[in-house]
# Entry
Amino acid sequence: MKIGIIIGRIGGVDGVALETEKWIEVFQKMGHQIFIISGQFEGRKMNCESETRVPEMSFFSPESYWEQKKAFFHPDFDQDDLIEHLQLYSKVIENKIINWIHKFNIDLLLSENASCLPSHISMGIAIKNAILKTGKTIITHDHDFAWERGDRYVSPHPKINEFVKNEFPLRLPNSYHAVINLNARKTLKEKFNRDSIVVPNVMNFDKPFGELNENNKNLLIDLNLENNDILLFQITRVVERKGIETAIDLIDKLHDPRLKLIITGNYADDAGNLYYMKLVEQIHELKLSKQIRFAYQDFSNKGLSGHASKNYSLSDAYAYARACTYFSTYEGFGNAFVEAVLAKRPIFVNNYKPVYWPDIGSKGFKAVMLEDNVLTNNALKDMHEVIYNTQLNKEIAEYNYQLGKKLFSYVTLEEKLRQLIDIATK
# Structure
């Protein structure tokens, strides 16, 4: 089957792009041909035989940037120009999608988050109109919804709110939903009476990951760390919902100068660097500058195992972690949790609602879990035991790995994709 993927950006490190790459890999293993249409190919070379770039579909295009600004951030008093813009550029994108469908004779379409979150309104409208005109069946891979983002997608313009209400998520008879957590499935059913299949984020458990090797043997030296240092890794971006302040508090409360917290992600997505500066102030007040390391300049976040222009990959980071901190307050699923499981590293986690416990924690994983990021004495005692008891550390890691392999591997993804295709093509 020829499957056409519609996505605003592919090749980046955001969850949508990363999961799309995994779906592509499994679809191809299943024998399907994959064709991609996207506004941006980030960090990857385009294959012109199967990949098509439409600049207007990029989230960073002037067209998308302007419409987001005028719709949600700095609206004009008169909404007519904005409505005219949406009608014009949705038509431009619609025509290019239709031409792409005909050119490659696409059998089944897949919309990657573009039909559920109005982060590119004209693209969402264009996809719907292209489906209406071609009659093609589409699966929408819904990672996020507007109502999950507070007032981010609430406009002072009534017509824009009407667009958002009517177009997102896509609700056509020949459209089918894949969501990434149980709460999304429940909400879709309650709001729109739409059924969906939960497809969890997965990892490839058949490839080596998080292992010591020749490529990372000098990591401690390059990071100016000592052989007897005990490393906890925060392998996420630096944005407020990641709860990194709790990881810093943990270092403070454990009272061991050998403990180091290594934060691999950058703060490029932190608006105004406000959260980063808050963390810096916390580190300064607690006098932990020798124990906390912002190391984004040393790690490539372009894929889990690729090095790109940086010294080390995320796989290398996991290889040196005694345990991982993941005190997020919200996640659509929890890639960093599954990564730690794959790397055979214990993890300390916050029960981020409404996803962590129903979708991950209740499955039987062994993790020290906080409620509302409160470091209780019992939690500190449990974390201390995991860090310093080597045998317990390894037993937890191995147990979680075997459970993760059953629940969040490419085998699970293939089963879910077969189910989706069966439903969409019945």
Summary: The longest helix spans residues 80-104. The chain has two domains: 2-202+410-424, 214-407. The chain is about 40% helix and 15% strand.
